[in-house]
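Can't paste images in this forum, so I'm doing it all in text. The chain is below; anyone willing to post the predicted C-alpha cells underneath?
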Amino acid sequence: MSDVKIGAYICKGCGLGERLDTAALAKIAEREGKAALAKEHDFLCSEQGVAMIREDIEKEGLNRIVIAACSRRAKTEAFGFDGDGVAVSRANLREGVIWARPDTEEARETTQEMAEDYVRMACAEVRHMTPPKPNPEAQTHRRILVVGGGVSGMTAALEAAKAGYEVTLVEKTGALGGMAAKLHRRVPDHAPYADPQETGVEQMIREVEENPKIEVVLNARITRTS
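Text version of the structure:
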C-alpha cells in the first residue's frame, strides 16, 4: 500500500459551502484520511474543477481520488478518472448529508460531524481500492452492439459513442424511436408540472443519425451471436 497517493477534493457548490465547514473537511482528509493533498472548490464538476483534479493527477502522481460532493450516481462523466488508472471514491455530502438533515442552527454541529464521517469513510475506501487494469491476454473491441432503437437503445448508443466507442444500433422496424415516437406529448418532468411537454424523441433521433460513431441498421434482427 506504500504506492497509494490520495487526493481529496471538497465541493462547495449546491449549498455545501453554506451548510458545511469545508475547510475542516479538507483537514480531516489530510490528517485522518492520510490524503497527500486536499482542496476545496466552488464547483468541482465544472470544467475548471475537473481540470484542477486532472492536473493534480498528472503533476502530483495521485492514484486515488476522493470526491466529496454529490451522489456517486451523479456527474459520473465529470468524475470518471478510472481510465487514467486512478481509483475514485465518492463521499455523498449533498444527498446523504445536507439534504437529509434539517437546516437549523441546532442541527449544524451534528450535520458537520456526519459530513466528516463521510469523508473519513471515502478516504478509507479509496485506500483499499485497486485501479482497474485490462487483461493483456483478452482481445478488446471498440465496437458495441445495441439492440433496439427506442429511447433506451438510442440513449445507450449515444452514451457509448460519447465514451469513444463505435456503435452499431440495430432496430427491427424501419424507423428509430420505438413507442415513444408515437406519442404526441409526455408527462412533464419538471416544475410546475402543469402542461404536457415535448417527448424529445425527434431530437434524439437526429443526434443518433448525425453521430459519426453510430451506424444505424433498420429492418434487421439479430439471428446469431458469436
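The radius of gyration is 22 Å. The longest helix spans residues 108-127.
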